[in-house]
Write a structure and sequence with these properties.
Helix content is 35%, strand content 19%. The protein is of the alpha/beta class and 243 residues long. The relative contact order is 0.16. The chain binds phosphoenolpyruvate.
Length: 243
């Protein structure tokens, strides 16, 4: 299967010029998630890649009545050409106070609107220091709560990104062995608990053009979620070429 490579531009002004090209690749499905105001502009210049969003609201009209100032529904994103949505990112959990309950509602609303969900999970440093059993327990609880009532029907749309918080934006990526261990754990949990067999599992956390290969060559890792290193079109393209 092709790897899935996702660019999360976060709240950065996009350097649009370098991105105008064909991103189609034999090795990877490419997703670019710009900040909301730039989604349609980016959609006009990237060919062969898919648009992602970095967040979505937890209701879709007509169930929601539209009176949610400042929010953007999954259905609106679909209408803007978006195919994927990143939910549960640790920055939103930590800074914006998103709980597993909120993330769960967002996942259900996004799936109902036909978006492919990229659910982010991962442990903080204090949990990592306790060892792998503690990490599995932490990540397992996140997944069980976030996917509550998630139906098998949407299996092909579920993607999980394992992003240890201590590795995000720190330049200190996890060891590939850790990514293997947690990927296997997540895949087996999602299979046994939610009967979802082919979840795509991404690794995220300080992936760049130098270390990407050590993750992307692993059969347990189906792709990468890339923050900082995805801001440069040439660096991002190098990651894809290196698969
Ligand atoms: C992220 O924010 O999802 C991420 C992986 O960031 P970075 O690549 O900068 O660590």
């Amino acid at each position: 299967m092709k790897k899935l490579i996702v660019a999360n531009w976060k709240m950065n002004l996009p350097p649009l010029a370098g991105w105008k090209r064909n991103w189609k690749s034999k090795k990877a499905d490419v997703v670019i998630a710009p900040p909301f105001p730039f989604i349609s502009e980016v959609g006009k210049i990237i060919f062969g890649g898919a648009l992602g969003a970095q967040n979505a609201f937890w209701k879709n009209p007509p169930e929601g009545d539209g009176a949610y100032t400042g929010e953007i529904s999954p259905r609106m994103l679909r209408a803007a050409g978006v195919k994927y949505v990143i939910l549960g990112h640790s920055e939103r959990r930590r800074i914006l106070g998103e709980t597993d309950e909120i993330i769960n509602k967002k996942i259900l609303a996004a799936s109902a609107a036909g978006l492919k969900v990229i659910l982010c999970v991962g442990e903080p440093l204090e949990v990592r220091k306790k060892g792998v059993v503690a990490v599995k327990s932490y990540v397992g609880k996140q997944i069980s709560a976030d996917l509550r009532n998630f139906k098998n029907l949407w299996f092909s749309k579920l993607i999980i990104a394992y992003e240890p918080i201590w590795a995000i934006g720190t330049g200190r990526a996890a060891k590939p062995e850790d990514a293997i261990l947690i990927s296997r754990f997540i895949k087996s949990l999602v299979d046994s608990k939610f009967k979802i067999k082919n979840v795509r599992l991404l690794y995220g956390g300080s992936v760049n053009s130098q270390n990407a290969k050590s993750f992307l060559k692993l059969k347990e890792v189906d792709g990468a979620l890339i923050g900082h290193a995805s801001l440069s079109a040439s660096g991002f393209s190098k990651i894809i070429k290196n698969i």
